[in-house]
Amino acid sequence: MDGDRESQRWNWDCPNTRRQLEELFFSEQGYIKANSEDSKEFWVFFDRFQRFQKMQKRGDKCKGRTDKEKYSGSLKDLPKVYDPRYRINFSIIQSKDVEKSRHNHVKEYRSRDCRSIPREKLEEFKMSVLHYLDFTQKQSFAKLVKLRKERSSLPIFQYKEKIISMVHKHQVVVVAGDTGCGKSTQVPQYMLAAGFGHIACTQPRRIACISLAKRVGFESLNQYGSKVGYQIRFESSRSPATKIVFITEGLLLRQIQRDSTLPQYQVIIVDEVHERHLHSDFLLGVLRQLLVLRPDLKVILMSATINIKLFSGYFEQAPVLQVPGRLFPIQVIYQPIPQEETVSKSEKLDPRPYLHVLQAIDHKYPPDERGDLLIFLSGVTEISSVQEAVQVYATHTQRWIVLPLHSTLSIADQDKVFDLAPVGVRKCIISTNIAETSVTIDGVRFVLDSGKVKEMSFDPKAKMQRLQEFWISRASAEQRKGRAGRTGPGVCYRLYAESDYDAFSPYPVPEIQRVALDSLVLQMKSMELGNPRHFPFIEQPSMSSIETAIFYLRDQGALDINEELTPIGKLLAKLPVDVVIGKMLILGSLFSLVEPVLTIASALSVQSPILRNSTSNPEWGTARKPLESEHGDPFTLLNIFNEWVQVKANQRSNSRKWCRRRGLEEQRLYEMANLRRQFKELLKDHGLLEENVAQRGDRNSRQRQHKERKELHQLKRQHERVEKRKRKVLKLQDEGAGSSSDGEEQYHTEKHRKDRKDSIDIQDVKFKLRHNIHELHASSSTGQDLSSQEVSLLKLIVCHGLYPQLGVPDSFNSCRKDSDQVFHTKNKQGVVLHPTCVFSCNPELLQVNSEEESAGNESGNKGQSSRHQIVAFVSLLETNKPYLVNCVRLSALQGFLLLARCIDTSADCCRIVCDKWMEMNVDNPESALCLITEAVQLRVALEKLLKSRLEKPSRREDHTEDDAWTARQEAERLGRRLVDYVRPEAIYSMRRLAALEAQNLYVGPQVLSSASGLPGVFTGVELKPDPLKGGYSVTNFLTYNCLASETDFYSDCLRSFWTCPHCGLYMPFTPMERMSHQNSCMVEETSEGLGEQDNKMTSVTSLHRNYHCDICQKDLMLTPTEILKHKRQHLNS
Amino acid sequence: MGAAILPGAQGTLGNAYHWPREGTHARNYVTNVTERKHGQSAKCVRNIPVRMDLDEPQPKGLFECELCRLSVPYTYYGQRPPNSQSVVLLEECFVTKDPFTPEKEKFLILGSPCSLCKKSVCVGTECSLFYSKRFCLPCVTQHREGFPPEIQQDLDKRKAQKKS
Predict the structure, then answer these.
(1) What digits encode the pLDDT tens for the residues A245-261?
(2) Residue B110 and residue A721: Cβ atoms within 8 Å?
(3) Which residue in A172, A812, A984, B18 has the most C-beta neighbors within 10 A?
(4) What is the rounded distance in angstroms from the CA atom of residue A444 to the CA atom of residue A327?
């Protein structure tokens, strides 16, 4: 009776009781752990279970037991009386405490706690735990069965055996199936089931690698194991136990580059071959050659049902297996935009046809029928103009949530398209072609296809990328349509006529025919694939495109005359970046400016972190202002990165917030950090970077670091457990706060403040695990206080990499509006600066200042200055206008003299033409000559240094400390000279040559009797008359006196008195003689072996002899030809 | 063994006498005793090359339900699943690590041999039921009368559900 009363008073909800029970049952070793997710779930279950039991009891009482008789007991060993407990096939073992309290050993340890819980309550609780465990077992098992059912209901499942037998019989098999047939997830698993152990499946996109690995891991019940992994740049989940790896095409190619037979794989699956990416086309070519060397290797090509014959034919009629897709019927409605509406040929897209479709959907389909709308437009500007109009309609009707989707959006914004709309509201996703293949959104029922796409094309002549709008192909149109039928029957509205559709080209243009092939050709060379012109691509790129690439690589010094890789080329081929950026890295390592160069190189290799979209916030610009560099965008990026690392290193500050305030996409900065590290390792591997002796620090700090890392690891694991991003329900936007990101942020902070507090910034954790933040911090702070000398050297390095991508400001820029500054490159005139460029807000940085100009006016020549600027740019991108992207400024004359491939001068060197394009007229012949001689010396020294650095064996042990030290000294000296050199002093004017002028630039070949007898200006370099231009070619980039001009035909023979600053020799020289002397004088000086007297003697070559001129009464050291010239001079005068 | 599971007359739910209790053993798992030989009734499809990966238990073979043909690799057969010290199974089961949670001590029971016909069947309600012992559904229908009415009702309910 007592117990009864007690149990009536008993309250399961009492927190104290619960705590006690948890202590008793949920031990550290127990199946349910205290304070775990599991225990929380248990209590939820517990409450439900209690209610359920109460209900059952009541039911039992009413019903009574009537059917007892039927129970025959024919089965042996079954319990006499039924109890649901017998239906559970396991039991719980308890800790001592529980056992004791259950057996009423009241006075034992902890007895006071347990006494308050009566025995039958403990029993009851134990039963609940048991039922909970049984419930979780059932849950997991049901999940497993469902998974298996789903797999076997995929269209491809029926072909499993067929595929396996085909792969066993043939080396290459083509599997063609449309979206939703399950080929990407299933075929790798089938191969594993068929007994293949090492399977690689390539994907064109990194995201796909991660998500497929996740999905396949889940399906093969290895979600938390490493049987299925992925490998993308900087990230890998691969372990020795990995059997299936999803890998990007580029990375697989790199692996082939390392070991051409690819021994680590038995099966290679190339997915999405129909998308015809540059890398996948190349990969197919490489694999085709590999098949001969690896007869045991199996290759499976997977494509949509597009152009299958092409792939099959490429691999000697490989067998094809076609799998039907799983698409629901889709109704196609052609709604061409009427002519009169398109007539308004303003730049902006007319949103009305799009609005009509939204209205039609609202009209036709009741709001409780779910289904979202996906609009395909060609570009970001189109998206924002449609978004604007649709948003007004959406706010009015309260039936739509408008979401843009394109690759320049922040990742958080991109993720919003996966969230759910509230009941009665549809999502209207306005997207670029990113949603055609890369992003798959479920729940789309309506597709609205503009039929347009903006595609990057490459103009090999101007070396310019062009983003142009095209009609899509029929294949893309079908792909877009298919997006409406993934989850149910759908509708596809096409804003073009059926006849238009029929006129579309069948397939999109393969990437290989649209892009620059520099990196591809370089990679082909380093993989020793022979002549790139004859490589059997699945479809040949244009020959001119290959030629351009080869020419460019030769021009950049990556290939030699015989098109073999040079040492630089070999290194560049290993760097997974553009040749331009590779060159910067190499040079940076020469001048011990590695840290900032690494940052700049990585910054220029990823998408810009600076966000710029329709809702871009003016406050961002203000917040970024202090980070802007007047030297140019790469330096701004350098500042951003350095500052960000500082923020990261500071324990208390939140880098995510810091980025948000400044309109920066933090993901890109993480990418930069990763890339930077990869570059650094590559440089170390090639002996271009000294392994800095690890500053291990004292024991304490090491311990602290160890502890920090441990904590980070823990956080990461914790995150992985609860990772699943839950789909949120979107909120209808209010009128005011609709598009403003401020309102958005507020909404987030208010609503999710609690979540946010709990949630860890996993990117931050990963970052800190991957990088040594202290080291990075140290190197970034050295980057922050670069001296002005270092900055200008850095600028030269960047520009050296970027050459020949140079632009000059138009001479009338000072009269133009800030935003209308015009620039010209050699091949493209009238380009403008990209709006994010620092110079587009501060154009005065590129203009010759007015004071100086007036000084120029005094000398009677307009446009004379010492401060002309040019810009080097990373890319030239044409969208609605041609834009220069990522610019650095540089002193014009010095820049050209140091970088130009082809410098031609007049006899007095005052007139200089660079790359047959820019003409510069220097005021003072003295300084002109000075500039040219110094430039020649610097360039030769630089080349020598670079060569010695690259050609030395990569084993650094071979070199003594001394060698390294002298090399460093040499580099430092050269660096100083370079910096001194670019200091503006000479006054000059600058203009572009007109086409006609450029054609008639040279005097042409001259018959010079004296040709053979000329002294070498440089030791070891023969000075030859140039057979085409006329004049003399001094080095491979400098031709002297070849410019046609009416005025000074004989000026090359004119001598003027000059004192050599090195040896003090004072005598008249022709410009040529002077250069020659200066150079040899320098050589002697550095060798330091000879006295001054000898120096003077050896400064002239052996052909020189003593000559006494009777007319000017002088003793001269001259060659025979010079003697003749000298005589002629007197005749003339 | 089956007799031992019989509970006390009052229907209180206690452990069978032979069940391991906390503290009476030194945490060594009963592996060899109840270990089933490969291919005895579960089909062992092929030998998966053993690579020592400390975190991942290697599959011992493939469990296949002889009724629904569900096949899943199992990592343990017996009554004391590894890493799960506080749970004991009341029948010898094919067990795998629960694939839906990262915690390595969580296991998932896949199936077990029917106590009557010895066929390996999965724990799915369409293939078998457990009532102090495992019975495959064909055996249950055969011996329908031998089960308590609660079980029979359940079976009827399920049948009706299936039809509708």
Answers:
(1) 999 999 999 999 888 88
(2) no
(3) A172
(4) 12
